[in-house]
Amino acid sequence: MSGHVAIALLAAGSARRFGGGKLDAMLGGKRLGRYALDAALALGRGTPLIVVGPEAAAFALEARAEGLATPIVNPLAQEGLGTSVALAARHAADAGADRLLLLAADMPLVSPATLAALIEACGNAPACVRHADGHPGIPACFPSASFAALAALGGDKGAGALLRTAEVAVLEVSLRELRDVDTVAELEQLAMETRPSS
Fold first, then answer.
1. What is the Cβ-side half-sphere exposure of residue 80, based on CA atoms within 13 angstroms?
2. Structural domains in the chain plus CATH codes
3. What is the pLDDT of residues 89-141, one digit of tens each?
4. What are phi and psi of 66, to 5 degrees?
5. C-alpha–C-alpha distance, residues 134 and 46, integer Å
6. Beta strands per DSSP E along 26-98
7. Are 103 and 157 in contact (CB under 8 A)?
8. 3 CB neighbour count, 10 Å cutoff
9. Which residues of 67-85 are buried (b: 16+ CB within 10 A; e: fewer)?
10. What's the whole-model pTM score?
């Protein structure tokens, strides 16, 4: 399926459980947030957006300097994830996109193949992945018909409610890909697991 796909990385959280600065923490020689961005860039679908808070992560500013991504500031980031999703949806609508791919910047193992499959599966209804708890979630791709509902979100409510309908295409992917990093201990564990063997 062709058409203009907007891609947005959600990177505006305060990372309180991590102690701040999570997306700029180093993993395998590069910043944590750069992994999700690189997966998005591998799709060859244009310049991704990175939704950041008032104090943008360095990985996002570096990507802008390299001409790889466009950070957009969410001044309401402290109010919750929903405000970032809403901002991304409004930008996608303004850009005339027919789909919006949302992914979290703290999920470094998501593959370009999974992201491409979500875009392909997103037709008249959203497509998403199934997480370990059985619930659908991001990364997820939404058709333009969902943009208004996404743009109306606020607070801590993300796009989950829109993904709990019968029409949604739910992809089964490796749960390893869906691991996110919330704490320093989780980052250290991931670093141990992904370190090349000598």
1. 8
2. 5-194 (3.90.550.10)
3. 999 999 999 999 999 999 999 999 999 999 999 999 999 999 999 999 999 99
4. -85, 0
5. 32
6. 26-27, 30-31, 49-52, 70-73
7. no
8. 11
9. ebbebbbbebbeebbbbbb
10. 0.93
